[in-house]
Design a protein that fits this description.
This protein has 198 residues and is mainly alpha-helical. It contains nine helices and no strands. It has helices at 3-21, 30-54, 58-80, 84-91, 99-106, 116-132, 136-139, 154-178, 182-197. α1 (3-21) packs antiparallel against α9, α2 (30-54) packs antiparallel against α3 (58-80) and α8 (154-178) runs antiparallel to α9 (182-197). The model has no long low-confidence stretch (mean pLDDT 95).
Length: 198
């Protein structure tokens, strides 16, 4: 798939998610509202990454991948793992847990014992940090022999879009689960499989 087709496919997927999540009702508990807020941020970052790639702003798109991943993990951690005192600490912006500890807590929950989130972190965290914090992986893609300009490859941007879309679909599945709409969760999963089958 070309980068332009991947952008179009990503835009279509986002529009589909928006239509299907719009108006979904979730319980108004602190746990669910806080979790949904984080997951909504993850969905917004997905949209921003697609928009940035479509406008040839690859460095900013790459920088947002870590932030989208963190928003998703925080959202599902709040939903499945946070204690009442941790929810209160989060509400007061005083939660003192490392990201790895959030993953460790979360991966004791049945839905996450396969360790896939820790695997993503172990395989990608260094690169995500480098892109987010203007490290060498970000900077080297702006240096060539004649000038300082972005030189990200189409394949790198397709990978970024795929990562952003995967996290967006996971966030949408979690939100539909909060609403108790398992049928929607399955449709979202089916739509994700369709997106990645192409």
């Amino acid at each position: 798939m070309t980068l332009q087709l991947q952008i179009q496919s990503s835009e279509s997927a986002i529009q589909w998610l928006d239509r299907n999540l719009d108006g979904l009702e979730i319980p108004a508990t602190d746990r669910i509202r806080l979790s949904a807020g984080c997951l909504d941020v993850a969905l917004e970052h997905q949209k921003a990454i697609v928009l940035l790639v479509a406008n040839a702003l690859a460095g900013s798109a790459a920088a947002l991948l870590r932030i989208e991943f963190e928003a998703y993990v925080r959202g599902i951690w709040l939903l499945y793992s946070a204690t009442e005192s941790e929810l209160l600490a989060f509400k007061n912006d005083k939660l003192k847990k490392t990201f790895q500890k959030l993953l460790d807590d979360l991966e004791t929950h049945d839905a996450f014992t396969d360790g896939v989130l820790s695997k993503i972190k172990s395989e990608s965290w260094g690169a995500m940090n480098s892109f987010t914090h203007s490290g060498m992986m970000q900077v080297v893609r702006r240096l060539n022999s004649e000038e300082v300009i972005p030189t990200y490859t189409d394949a790198e941007m397709i990978d970024a879009l795929n990562s952003a879309n995967s996290l967006g679909f996971l966030a949408a599945i979690a939100i539909s689960g909060m609403a108790g709409n398992e049928g929607l969760a399955q449709r979202i999963l089916d739509r994700e499989r369709e997106l990645f089958a192409n």
